[in-house]
Amino acid sequence: MTARREAACRCGGFTAVCEGQPDRVAACHCLECQRRTGSILSVQAWFPSDHLTVSGPCRAWTRVSATGRTITYRFCPTCGSTVLIDHAGLPGLIGVTVGAFADPTFPAPVASLWEQRRHAWAVICGDDIEHTD
After folding, report:
1. Which one, 28, 37, 101, 118, has least CB within 10 Å?
2. Domain span holding position 74
3. How confident is the model over 104-120, as pLDDT tens digits?
4. Total structural domains in the chain?
């Protein structure tokens, strides 16, 4: 049986239905993600773009990452919640913010990125976690 999950913004106006398991779940500690989320890290699940069905209005904001690639955030124009992320370095994949699933049983991250920006008390642990600076 194929997993089917729905991610939504806070007001429910912008949604993404995801089929199957994510290719990768990653936690990011970069300062841009900290500013975007208002938290100390962000967590995204990356799905093949053809495994998503998106509905509702959204707005987009694009920036250039520290590696020189563009990242586009798609968020609800009503409540401001970021739901989707397009990263030029990950062609064919769409990032879905894990918090938008509102599912405490969602798979844990397999990678912890930009750890040189990590708050000392925020540790992603596990034997198989990829840690990168």
Report:
1. 37
2. 4-131
3. 999 999 998 988 888 88
4. 1
Question: How big is the chain by its Cα radius of gyration, in Å?
Answer: 14
The DSSP 8-state label assigned to residue 101 in this structure reads G
Report, as an integer, the average pLDDT of 83-106. Answer: 96
Burial class (CB in 10 A: 0-12, 13-18, 19+), 13: middle
Buried/exposed 31-41: b ≥16 CB within 10 Å, e otherwise: ebbbebeeeeb
- CATH code for the domain in which residue 97 is found: 2.170.150.70
Share of the chain above pLDDT 90, in %: 77
Close Cβ partners of 88 (under 8 Å, ≥ 6 residues apart): 69, 70, 71
Tens-place pLDDT, residues 20-56: 999 999 999 988 989 999 999 999 999 999 999 999 9
Quote the distance between the C-alpha of residue 82 and its chain's center.
9
Q: Which pLDDT tens digit goes with each residue over 10-23?
A: 999 999 999 999 99
Q: Which residues pair with 25 in a beta bridge?
A: 45
Which two tokens mark 94? 């769409």
Name the nearest CA neighbour of 45 among 76, 12, 23.
Answer: 23
